[in-house]
Write a structure and sequence with these properties.
The complex is a heterotrimer of chains A (243), B (324) and C (296).
Chain A: E1 7-18, E2 21-32, E3 36-40, H1 47-54, E4 62-67, E5 70-71, H2 77-82, E6 85-88, H3 100-110, H4 115-128, H5 144-155, E7 163-167, H6 175-192, E8 195-199, H7 203-209, E9 212-217, E10 220-225, H8 227-231, H9 234-241
Parallel strand pairs in A: 3-8, 3-9, 6-7, 7-8
Antiparallel strand pairs in A: 1-2, 1-4, 4-5, 9-10
Helix pairs in contact in A: 3-4, 3-5, 5-6
Chain B: H1 6-20, H2 27-52, H3 60-78, H4 82-104, H5 109-129, H6 131-134, E1 140-141, H7 151-174, H8 176-186, H9 188-193, H10 198-224, E2 226-227, H11 234-247, H12 253-268, H13 273-290, H14 294-312
Antiparallel strand pairs in B: 1-2
Helix pairs in contact in B: 2-7, 2-10, 2-11, 2-12, 3-4, 3-5, 3-10, 4-10, 7-8, 7-10, 8-10, 11-12
Chain C: H1 3-34, H2 41-60, H3 65-88, H4 99-122, E1 136-138, E2 141-143, H5 145-167, H6 169-179, H7 181-186, H8 191-217, H9 225-238, H10 243-263, H11 269-283
Antiparallel strand pairs in C: 1-2
Helix pairs in contact in C: 1-5, 1-8, 1-9, 1-10, 2-3, 2-4, 2-8, 2-9, 3-8, 5-6, 5-8, 9-10, 9-11, 10-11
The chains are: A alpha/beta (243), B mainly alpha (324), C mainly alpha (296).
Chain lengths: 243, 324, 296
């Protein structure tokens, strides 16, 4: 374990109740800075709810969430974003009537970057993502996979990005685009030290990408470790195969 | 900055036309166009809020009403000078819109429509009820801005204010604030995730739009000389929506085009007051159903069609030589 | 305070409240199914009044006025379903992107269209249908005959509506659609067809109200204004989509207006409803029975 590196994200005993349903049940999770963490689990295990809690869309019913020693649960989503946490959505949420380039500029502008700075940075990232030719097109004319890619590189526009949470970034995405996404994650992690938390069902991709994997089932963390450890954990096997 | 391009010179030309037009007009038409410019301000400001930022307010006309009444009442009861009346009218609308916006912009869109509708009705009914203070249904005589009822100076007054409003709105939309507005409209949740303080900017849009309406309303009162709760009737709001939709929502020129051309048309058809409204409302429904962008979109498509026609019949560079 | 007088006005308020309920039920019913606010509901009320007037004058005579109510409601049912088909359905089959904006603008335009059409066809005149019944009284409270039969008619219609929603299969299907629009489709329900029927029912209710209340509010192009204003006050107080809320809000509004007029000042009639509205919103910003809206 890398004890000398700080815990960037500390989810401490978090509970989320929706009326009668407990979507997240005493979940504790620690992500070390520089990690690429995988978050897996059967459907309706509470993964997206957890992300929504971390990014401020929902308020926790119990427990606390800490980012770099600062308490972030209860803060507004835009404040959390400005602190350096970005996220993508399972169903790509791009600004459909704005061009690809304009989409990219939003997170940069909201941080206070100048128009020129934002535009330059956007064009660089679009180049990296092989989306440059589409930069003047409205986002709604993009394919599903391109939309997901746009969503992802848009998050990199945040100059102070430290933690990037991605909800099913590979779902239904063409192989070539998947390759670009993987390259982006690995490059940003290696060169800029950005921490990632990836939710995905694609086990092979996750095991290639992630150092540590947390498994969520029915709102609880049932296992954590390397892919091998987790794959052989009887609790995990039971969760996926059982009812 | 691209100052000397075609679009800018085109706009300048239009402005020059507008400046010299009154000399070709009778007093009646000068008056008609003054009112058209008033509605341009209302349409453009509503478009900023409802079109660009996606906040569908049904109480926009009420802010014009508040501006007019505040200005006139302050002048009549507190004896302040006219310019101060207009200023106070504008300031009060900004304050009221801040409070109202803060209260109802934090929830889903449909509630904004209902709350602003209710707000509009409450204000209108109040003015009618408290007739001792506000003059009620009989209205209030407002001091005239130029001390005369001749329409010529008012033409330039409203032209000036609408140019100011249009430039202000264009400047906002070109800036980063314009990005925030459009992001909020497209996907508010995503906008927040991208760091945009959506509540703050929605309230800001509401304040700017309402402030412009209040300013326009105050000037309106001091131009017509008589204000009454009729200004606050839902009909006024519907007119604004009609102008914006027919002209083209979410464009800079749309509200201007819509307001001026429809007002002009309405005046030409003033004999048939029901038929013209029937036609207009039917057109709005057809536009919403079939091509959302109104007149501006029509022009855009026409332009594209012309350009495509050009490509379809290319002239060959050199004559074909038969190969034998 | 004279208890006798108080109870008289209370009863009058309750009666008015029930009439308001009939006017406003359709709005929340349609909203529950389609999440669309129909801003032209008042105009369907007006159509009902006009149709009823024409039926009485030209066809059935004033003795069988109640048949007119049924026919009016029936005609408007089909009109409403047709309107829904042409104008509202596109929202749900992927043609329209900005749904709320579209629905609001289209229904507002419809309201204006219908209002002006009425002036064009019938002229800006106020038509007075003949009285449905002669003046009567409930206990010591004198009551106009029209109001009395309107009350009975409203109660019958509301009872029918309740029976329909709670006891029939279609009614339960409607409840299901209102609760989970995507879920019911997996149960084999053709939501689009239900949308049209719901719109038809909602507008038919308004039209029945118009027909019943024609002798009271009279028949003219603007007679839909009061139902619109009261109707929307009521749904804001009740909370969007809530049917029981409409009953509670309508009664509250009717009572507030009656007591206010009686004990404070009758010329401030319009204000009482809005005062009630503001008070309710201060305590419960989403209406009495409204659901808190979650973002994302």
């Amino acid at each position: 374990m890398n004890n000398h590196r700080r815990h960037l994200l500390n989810v401490e005993n978090v509970v989320k109740d929706f009326g009668g349903l407990t979507a997240v049940n005493h979940v504790s999770l620690r992500v070390v800075e520089g990690e690429i963490r995988g978050l897996i689990g059967p459907n309706a295990s509470g993964k997206t709810t957890l992300i929504n809690l971390i990014t401020g869309i929902y308020k926790v019913t119990g427990g606390g969430i800490y980012f770099s020693e600062n308490r972030i649960d209860g803060l507004q989503p835009n404040v959390i974003a400005s602190m350096g946490i970005m996220r993508t959505f399972q169903i790509s949420r791009v600004f459909r009537d704005m061009t690809v380039l304009e989409n990219m500029m939003v997170p940069a502008l909201s941080q206070g970057q100048t128009m020129l700075e934002a535009k330059t940075r956007a064009e660089e990232l679009l180049e990296f993502a092989l989306l440059s030719t589409l930069k003047g097109e409205p986002a709604k004319s993009l394919s599903g996979g391109q939309n997901m890619l746009l969503q992802i590189v848009r998050g990199f526009m945040n100059k102070y990005l430290r933690l990037y949470i991605m909800d099913e970034p590979f779902a239904g995405v063409h192989q070539s685009i998947k390759g670009i996404i993987l390259k982006a994650i690995k490059t940003m992690n290696r060169e800029k030290g950005i921490t990632f938390m990836i939710i995905s069902h694609e086990m092979t991709t996750i095991s290639n990408l992630c150092n540590q994997i947390s498994v969520l089932h029915k709102g609880e963390i049932i296992s954590q470790g390397t892919m091998e450890e987790v794959a052989n954990d009887p609790l995990v096997i039971d969760a996926y195969l059982g009812g | 900055m691209q100052i000397f391009n075609l679009k800018f010179s085109g706009l300048l030309l239009l402005l020059l036309v507008a400046i010299f037009l009154p000399f070709l007009m009778t007093d009646y038409w000068r008056y008609v166009f003054s009112i058209a410019y008033y509605y341009t301000i209302m349409a453009a400001s509503w478009n900023l809020l409802g079109g660009y930022t996606g906040q569908f307010s049904l109480g926009h006309h009420t802010f014009a009403l508040i501006g007019a009444y505040t200005s006139t009442l302050m002048i009549l009861k507190a004896g302040i000078p006219l310019w101060m009346g207009i200023l106070s009218g504008t300031i009060l609308t900004i304050i009221v819109s801040f409070v109202l916006g803060f209260l109802c912009l934090r929830v889903r869109g449909i509630y904004l429509a209902l709350i602003t509708w209710a707000f509009a009705e409450v204000v209108r009914v109040y003015i009618r009820m408290d007739y001792v203070f506000t003059g009620g249904d009989r209205g209030l005589f407002a001091p005239l801005f130029f001390g005369t009822t001749k329409p010529l100076p008012y033409y330039y007054l409203f032209l000036g204010v609408s140019v100011f409003a249009i430039i202000l709105i264009a400047a906002i939309m070109r800036s980063r604030i314009g990005y925030y507005f459009r992001a909020i409209r497209n996907d508010e949740v995503a906008a927040r995730a991208m760091g945009v303080n959506t509540v703050r900017w929605k309230v800001f849009a509401f304040m700017v739009a309402s402030g412009l309406a209040g300013l326009a309303g105050a000037f309106y009162g001091h131009s017509i000389g008589l204000i009454s709760p009729v200004l606050g009737e839902f009909n006024e709001m519907a007119m604004i929506i009609i102008f914006v939709v027919i002209g083209g929502m979410r464009t800079q020129a749309g509200p201007v085009l819509g307001a001026i051309s429809i007002r002009y048309l309405m005046d030409l058809l003033r004999e048939w007051s029901e038929i013209r409204i029937i036609i207009l409302s039917a057109i709005v429904i057809i536009i919403m159903r079939f091509f959302n962008g109104g007149l501006m979109e029509l022009f855009k498509r026409a332009k594209q069609w012309v350009q495509q026609k050009g490509i379809k019949e290319p002239v060959p560079a050199y004559p074909q030589i038969d190969q034998k | 305070m004279d208890l006798h007088l108080f109870s008289q006005f209370l009863v009058a308020g309750i009666i008015m409240g029930i009439l308001y309920c009939l006017m406003s039920l359709g709005i929340n019913f349609i909203y529950g199914i389609m999440k669309v606010i129909n801003w032209s509901m008042g105009e369907f009320f007006m159509i009902g009044a006009y149709v009823q007037y024409l039926l009485i004058i030209y066809f059935i005579g004033s003795r069988y006025w109640y048949i007119g109510v049924v026919i009016s409601a029936f005609c408007v049912f089909f009109l409403g379903a047709l309107v829904q088909r042409i104008l509202i359905k596109p929202m749900f089959v992927g043609i329209i992107e900005e749904k709320m904006e579209y629905a609001t603008i289209v229904t507002i335009s419809m309201a204006i269209f219908l209002r002006n059409l009425a002036v064009l066809i019938g002229g800006p005149y106020i038509y007075t249908p003949p009285d449905y019944a002669s003046p009567t009284h409930i206990g010591p409270l004198p009551l106009s005959g029209n109001r009395f039969v309107a009350l009975i008619g409203a109660l019958i219609l509301l009872a029918l509506f309740y029976y329909f929603m709670k006891r029939t299969w279609i009614g339960k299907a409607f409840q299901a659609v209102a609760q989970n629009r995507s879920g019911v489709q997996t149960a084999g329900i053709n939501v689009l067809k239900f949308d049209a029927i719901a719109f038809g029912i909602g507008t038919a209710l308004a039209a029945a109200g118009g027909a019943l209340l024609a002798p009271i509010f009279l028949v003219h192009p603007m007679c839909g204004l009061i139902p619109t204003i009261r109707g929307f006050e009521i749904i804001v107080i009740a909370g969007l989509g809530s049917i029981p809320g409409v009953l509670v809000a309508s009664l509250s509004l009717g009572i507030a207006e009656s007591l206010g007029s009686a004990f404070i000042n009758p010329s401030f009639l319009d204000i009482y409803g809005f005062v009630l509205l503001i008070l309710v919103l201060l305590i419960k910003p989403f209406g009495l029975f409204g659901k808190e809206e979650r973002m994302a």
